[in-house]
């Protein structure tokens, strides 16, 4: 059987998704052997022209170049997978959403000029093109990537978690960090898949896998944490780190009506 | 009659560019313009999108900072976490105890091991052996790739054990760690490291047997942190190869950024000269602090390590890889001998202050500088990364290389320049948020 052709593309981000994949040393050669790699700049000089069966795209749409590159990838790809929080929600850089781009440029680059072809904000892929699957996380979980890749190669429809981190916390019998310890844990509004990593390491979920799309009740979470004594800014800062572009968080931040 | 320059200019003007550097972290290109024998322009251009990290940090509470700065980079999230924690502790007058210091050293080492293994075997070696990547190299060199994966795995195992994840660990905070590893986990880790050391030996063997290109030789000035007694990756002073030794608080004098005409990036200089930071700089400045097998390896290879040749950086990385594996085992054993304390983090009471700290990321010196207000919120942040400091030196080496290789055809020249930039192991995602573009 001919191997599907896969491309691994990067927009604006830290390439953490690909580092996670390259960090799966024990399975790496087998995994990458499932596909014919047509592009994977971080790991290879290969550059093959033509159609792509599976395109993995990480990074946010931040520059004009990102946008053009993404549109080109979409045109030539059968299945497009947004991989990582930057590609799904715009990443940590999207926490500046709502700030005037001139202000951003001034504060970091000391100029009012639009450098780098900056689009003014950092977007997830689905705001710009049609996305077939979203693999969330900052960074993604290697195990989830492996399962997704295997499913796509076998032409099986992948199943991704549609429940919050709390479910995994309960399964692991970790006492609730909000209820028992009063910590500002974002587990209730964050999509599962990490096996409740942070709570299991004795620290509150910071929401790095992004909000559970269309399901996360962020105003409920805000209310709970206000009652626990946290001020509004602290909670919204936390929520905006990886979820500023989720519609309900944006609403709380006053970014849209 | 045509003026001669008109006739010849078209023939002699040559533009060469490597559009997107492969096997380098981030997005960059090399651009060269030759006019006759003269190198008009030669530089590494960085075109990574802006992410505004210093701005994201403003207004954030001190305990969020390591989680945010980790996201600057995925190859070196650990140095960013450790150095931001240290800088904040300095600002708030907090002292952590020895166990935290040792765990942090292990965290820095974890990054050196995984990053050097990645760079040497996966990013650099395919060039020398004529492959596009390590996956295709694995067919002919299965043992080497297997050993490489094993030692890289050991570096990531340290990250998993101490920080909870291979990329963007979750427990590093100002004041210490939210979870201390258990003794059984550390014992297992020490065994894994011991079993992986053959991968580090393989790196030394392979890279000392390769012929290192000499087309980019050019005298270097270099800098590294003063690690104290043993070879290591953090300290409060910076050593310079001209004999200088500066407290990290004076980092502005060492990284002094200026705009230069030929390049798009602001460049660092020290007393008006470009300089190099990274494995080669560390090895040359701190070689007397090596011990064990790495010290022996250095003794044998001393003659091959040429301080003017950026390709020697690969050999320096290989020796550091060997040292780091040995050192990690020693540190873990010392923790186990002393008995692990399942201690709580040092209580941090928010207060206003200013803190500057430096560590060695795999690619070199990394400075973080913060000012905090009474509530422990960030009011100022400045981050100076190794690749930004190396940028001017990289350009100088590109120019030297182009001067020496101008007789080559475009394709070959392009390949050689790509290889040269790769020897620096640049980390473009890190560098970008403070690279100031020149108005063009």
Structural class of chain B: alpha+beta
Distance between the termini of chain A: 52 Å
Average pLDDT confidence of chain A is 95
- Strand order across the largest sheet of chain B: 8-7-6-11
Question: Most extensive chain contact?
Answer: A-B, 68 and 63 residues
- For the residues shown, what is the average pLDDT of chain B? 91
Strand content of chain B: 15-25%
Q: What level of helicity do the residues of chain A show?
A: 25-40%
Biggest sheet of chain B, open or closed, and with what strands and sense?
4 strands, mixed
Got a strand count of chain B?
14
Number of contiguous helices of chain A = 12
Read across the widest sheet of chain A, the strand sequence of neighbours is 2-1-3-5-7
Shape of chain A: globular
Compute the number of helices of chain B: 15
Tell me the distance between the termini of chain B: 36 Å
Largest sheet geometry of chain A: 5 strands, parallel
Q: List SSEs of chain B in N-to-C order.
A: HEEEHHHHHHEEHEEEHEEEHHHEEEHHH
Question: What features would you describe in this structure?
Answer:
The complex is a heterodimer of chains A (257) and B (440). Chain A has helices at residues 16-22, 28-32, 64-76, 85-89, 101-109, 142-153, 165-171, 177-181, 197-200, 218-227, 232-243, 247-252; strands at 5-10, 36-40, 52-58, 61-63, 77-83, 118-123, 133-135. Chain A is α/β, with parallel strands linked by helices and 257 residues long. In chain A, the strands form two sheets. Chain A has a five-stranded parallel beta sheet with strand order 2-1-3-5-7, with helices on both faces. In chain A, strands 4-6 form a two-stranded antiparallel sheet. The model of chain A has no long low-confidence stretch (mean pLDDT 95). With 440 residues, chain B is α+β, with helices and mostly antiparallel strands. Chain B is 48% helix and 16% strand. Chain B has 15 helices and 14 strands. Chain B has helices at residues 4-12, 53-57, 65-70, 77-92, 98-129, 134-140, 142-163, 183-209, 251-255, 279-286, 292-301, 312-338, 386-405, 410-423, 428-432; strands at residues 13-18, 28-35, 38-46, 172-173, 176-177, 222-226, 237-240, 245-247, 257-258, 267-268, 276-277, 353-361, 364-372, 378-384. In chain B, the strands form five sheets. Chain B has a four-stranded mixed beta sheet. In chain B, strands 1-2-3 form a three-stranded antiparallel beta sheet. Chain B is globular and about 65 Å long. Chain B starts with a helix and ends in an 8-residue tail after the last helix. Mean pLDDT of chain B is 91; it is low at 1-10, 260-264 and 433-440. At the A-B interface, helix 1, helix 2, helix 5, helix 9 and helix 11 of A face helix 2, helix 5, helix 6 and helix 7 of B.
């Amino acid at each position: 059987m001919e191997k599907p052709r896969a491309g691994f593309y990067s927009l604006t981000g830290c390439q953490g998704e690909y580092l996670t994949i390259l960090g799966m040393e024990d399975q790496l050669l087998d995994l990458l052997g499932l596909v014919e790699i047509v592009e994977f700049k971080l790991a290879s000089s290969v550059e093959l022209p033509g159609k792509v069966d599976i395109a993995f795209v990480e990074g946010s749409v931040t520059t004009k170049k990102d946008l053009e590159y993404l549109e080109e990838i979409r045109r030539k790809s059968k299945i497009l997978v947004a991989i990582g929080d930057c590609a799904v929600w715009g990443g940590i850089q999207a926490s500046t959403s709502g700030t005037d781009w001139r202000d951003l440029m001034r504060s970091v680059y000391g100029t009012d000029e639009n450098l780098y072809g900056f689009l003014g904000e950092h977007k997830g892929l689905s705001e710009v093109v049609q996305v077939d699957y979203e693999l969330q996380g900052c960074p993604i979980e290697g195990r989830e990537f492996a399962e997704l890749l295997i499913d796509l190669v076998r032409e099986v429809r992948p199943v991704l978690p549609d429940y919050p981190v709390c479910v995994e916390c309960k399964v692991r019998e970790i006492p609730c960090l909000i209820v028992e310890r009063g910590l500002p844990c974002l587990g209730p509004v964050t999509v599962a898949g990490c096996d409740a990593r942070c709570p299991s390491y004795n620290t509150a979920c910071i929401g790095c896998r992004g909000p559970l799309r269309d399901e996360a009740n962020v105003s409920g979470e805000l209310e709970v944490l206000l009652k626990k004594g946290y001020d509004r800014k602290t909670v919204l800062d936390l929520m905006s780190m990886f979820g500023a572009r989720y519609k309900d968080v944006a609403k709380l931040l006053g970014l849209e009506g | 009659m045509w003026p001669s320059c008109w006739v010849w200019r078209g023939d002699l003007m040559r533009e060469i560019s490597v559009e997107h550097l492969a096997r380098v972290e981030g997005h960059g290109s090399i651009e060269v313009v030759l006019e006759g024998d003269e190198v008009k322009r030669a530089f590494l251009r960085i075109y990574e999108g802006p992410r505004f990290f210093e701005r994201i940090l403003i207004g954030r509470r001190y305990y969020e900072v390591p989680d945010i700065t980790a996201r600057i980079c995925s190859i070196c999230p650990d140095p960013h976490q450790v150095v931001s924690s240290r800088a904040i502790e300095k600002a708030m007058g907090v002292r952590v105890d020895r166990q935290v210091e040792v765990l942090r050293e292990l965290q820095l080492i974890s990054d050196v091991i995984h990053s050097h293994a990645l760079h040497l075997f996966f990013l650099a070696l395919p060039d020398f052996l004529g492959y596009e990547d390590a996956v295709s190299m694995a067919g002919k060199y299965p043992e080497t790739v297997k050993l490489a994966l094993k030692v890289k795995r050991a570096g990531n195992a340290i990250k998993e054990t101490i920080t909870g994840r291979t990329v963007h660990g979750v427990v590093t905070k100002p004041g210490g760690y939210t979870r201390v590893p258990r003794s059984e986990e550390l014992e297992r880790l020490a065994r894994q490291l011991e079993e992986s050391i053959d991968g580090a030996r393989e790196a030394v063997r392979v890279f000392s047997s390769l012929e290192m290109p000499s087309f980019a030789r050019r005298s270097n000035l270099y800098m590294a942190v003063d690690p104290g007694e043993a070879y290591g990756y953090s300290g409060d002073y910076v050593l310079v190869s001209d004999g200088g030794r500066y407290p990290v608080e004076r980092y502005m004098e060492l990284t002094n950024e200026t705009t230069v005409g030929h390049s798009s990036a602001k460049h660092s200089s020290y007393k008006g000269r470009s300089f190099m930071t990274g494995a080669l700089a560390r090895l040359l400045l701190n070689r007397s602090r090596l011990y064990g097998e790495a010290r022996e390896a250095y003794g044998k290879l001393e003659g091959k390590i040429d301080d003017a040749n950026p390709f020697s950086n690969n050999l320096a990385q290989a020796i550091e890889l060997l040292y780091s594996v040995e050192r990690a085992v020693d540190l873990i054993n010392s923790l186990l001998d002393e008995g692990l304390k399942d201690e709580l983090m040092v209580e941090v009471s928010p207060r206003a202050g200013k803190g500057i700290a430096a560590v060695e990321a795999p690619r070199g010196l990394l400075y973080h500088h913060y000012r905090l207000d009474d509530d422990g919120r960030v009011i100022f942040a400045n981050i100076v990364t190794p690749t930004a400091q190396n940028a001017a030196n990289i350009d100088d080496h590109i120019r030297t290389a182009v001067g020496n290789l101008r007789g080559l055809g475009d394709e070959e020249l392009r390949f050689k320049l790509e290889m040269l930039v790769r020897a620096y192991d640049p980390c473009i995602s890190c560098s970008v948020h403070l690279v100031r573009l020149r108005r063009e």
